[in-house]
Amino acid sequence: MKKFALLFLLLLASCSEAVPENAVILVSTTSTQDSGLLDVLLPAFTLQTGYQVNLIATGSGQALKIAEQGNADIVLLHSPQAELKFMQEGFGLERRPVMHNDFVIVGPSMDPASIRAQPTALAAFEEIFASASTFVSRGDESGTHVKELSLWDQADLDPAGKDWYLETGQGQGATLSIASEKQGYALTDRGTFLAYRSNVDLVILFEGDPILLNVYHVITVNPEKWPHVNLMGAQAFADFVTSSEGQQIIREYGVEEYGQPLFIPDVGSESP
Amino acid sequence: MSFDREVIQITLLSLQVSGIATTASLLLGLPFGTWLALGDFRGRSFILSIINTGMALPPVVVGLVVAMSLWRSGPLGDLRLIYTPWAIVLAQTIIAAPVVTGLTAAALESLDPRLQQQLLGLGASRIQMILHLWREARLPLLAALMAGFGSVISEVGASMMVGGNIRGQTRVLTTAIVLETSKGEFERALALSALLLILTYLINLALTWIQQRGVKR
Amino acid sequence: MIQIRDLLIRRGKIDALRVDSLDIRRGETLAVVGPNGAGKSTLLLALAHLIKPARGMITFHNTSLGEWDDVKYRRMIAFVFQDPLLMDLSVRENIGLGLKFRGLEGQEIMTRVNKWAKTMGLASLLNRRAGQLSGGEAQRVSLARAFVLGPELLLMDEPFSAVDPPTRAQLLKDLSRLLSRDHRTTVFVTHNLLEAAQMGDRVAVVIGGELKQVGTPRQIKSRPSDASVRAFLRELPY
What we know:
Chain A contains twelve helices and ten strands. By secondary structure, chain A is of the alpha/beta class. Chain A is elongated. In chain A, the strands form two sheets. In chain A, strands 1, 2, 3, 4, 7, 8, 9 and 10 form an eight-stranded mixed β-sheet that branches. A two-stranded parallel sheet of chain A has the order 5-6. Helix content of chain A is 43%, strand content 22%. Chain A has helices at residues 2-15, 30-35, 37-49, 60-68, 80-88, 121-130, 143-154, 172-182, 190-196, 231-242, 244-252, 255-258; strands at residues 23-29, 52-58, 74-77, 92-107, 135-137, 165-167, 186-189, 203-206, 213-221, 264-265. Chain B has 217 residues and is mostly helical. Chain B has a single domain (16-167), classed as MetI-like (MetI-like fold, Orthogonal Bundle), CATH 1.10.3720. Chain B has helices at 3-38, 44-55, 59-70, 85-109, 114-121, 126-136, 138-153, 157-163, 173-182, 186-212. Chain B is globular, with a radius of gyration of 20 Å. In chain C, the strands form two sheets. Chain C has a six-stranded mixed β-sheet, with helices on both faces. In chain C, strands 2-1-4-5 form a four-stranded antiparallel β-sheet, covered by helices on one side. In chain C, helix 5 crosses helix 6 (135-147). The longest helix of chain C has 18 residues, at 165-182. Chain C starts with a strand and ends in a 5-residue tail after the last helix. Classes of the chains: A alpha/beta (272), B mainly alpha (217), C alpha/beta (238).
């Protein structure tokens, strides 16, 4: 009986080593994860630096909350307004641009609202509104959702509560599935759409308007608030994704599989 | 829509969907479980073991299979049920039915086996006999009902997959909690959780009261 | 009234009961006696058509049981089991249960139940719940439940074996009185030879799943038909 108790205690003790020294907790969004970029970027980072990355992928809102509570070392996000607030409140140490991609409006190939022919994204949104075509929104306060809301706002339209306007409250992949089933329009980042294209019955109907740019930044969590964060690991990650090697990986990701890059590296650009 | 009004709408939908699913599972499970308990035929043990496995079926697996069946590309796509409340009712019924069936069978098997003969000996028709056996087993049968309801009101995976969590249409308490959490709105998530718990408690309170009524100790 | 011919009942692969020929006359009390497990209960279950024979025929009023509608037939008889097996109801509701199955009106049920409760000395217990009764009281309820039906045939399977001796003696006395008063056709199963002799106009001896002999108690005692019957008789203290 005593031997058993001793063994049990040893087992418990070994479990208390919760996060090993060489691990970095990265929190990012589900759409970033869905694009598949991290599946290439993170192992390359581990190979070069030896740091293991524990990735938590959630909606943008929760991502920042997790970082605010010190449960992450580094944040990779594409929600500029929320990020700036995060920095202002002193939760982040350093914020650097990493890459950008763009949003596109996808929908059924028969395009009932004829948005293909529209000159601007706002005009496309106006047509969708006017024709009461089905539009599927993320509805989860993610970066994409915030972008979508700002577009409606700039077009001076309010779709909330309309029966053609569906809010799923889910990630990009799930939202695209629903849009496909309902044969409706949706705003999505190009990366996730390219990754999901073969699973959904939707096509890109509008793209290219500068207003649709989607910018990614990496933020190291401020150790002043949370001394136990792995600052060295976080900085190593930030350095890696902005290094020439990291940027090269970003530049090349998706070209082979989809014929076009999903992201455009940004090092050297100014923070918007 | 203000948060409060929305919460009421979500709560009502949860109750409707889970209520209908539980009722459907009762209409299916009570007769089927009774037949399994009282019948004497080859393959009875086999079917019982399938039902017992069904009780432990992961709801998320049910959700996946139902979703794939209801997709436009799936066999039942023409029904256009995917991402509607009826899809959730379907999935939840499939989840609850084995629970109600299995527990009904167990409830009736726990009765004295001679009771059947006794009732028949008193001149009961088959239906009269079954009704009286149900009455004798009403305690474990009501427990079966509570278990069936509990298995669906608290379910989130299947509801998310087949319902789509669409605001105003298929958002129920559990999927709303997941959403608020992913937005970082932990207080709202907790408020919805408390609501769900209170709701479940009140319903079980009512069912327990019915169950214990007339039980003199 | 009842004729059994060439009967064979099987339980699984085993021959549980064989009866070549047995007549039960209207108004008589036939005591069926034999050692435990001999097949006596099986005979009662067959008479109630709760189990079907593998071979042979039982006729009731000259019609084979197989041709009777099961429920209709069983509503003409009453079965008292070894254990009272009362429902989780009041004594009143238990006694009236069979009447309820037969679709009688509430008022009619109440009248009959009250009458028989009085006869069986249960009037004061009518509102008691079944679970609160003593063994003897429960068995009385079981009897009342059977008698209230006014059955053409009464089947009783060792109704007093689970009851203590003094209560048992009293119950036997009461039962005997009731049966002779009403001339009710009864088949009474017991493993106790004394009881059989006391209760039965005639006695049927069943040993090892076979009907060995039928006759008055005196006939059986004085001329046992074979060695097994003789051995069984030897169990008697007198």
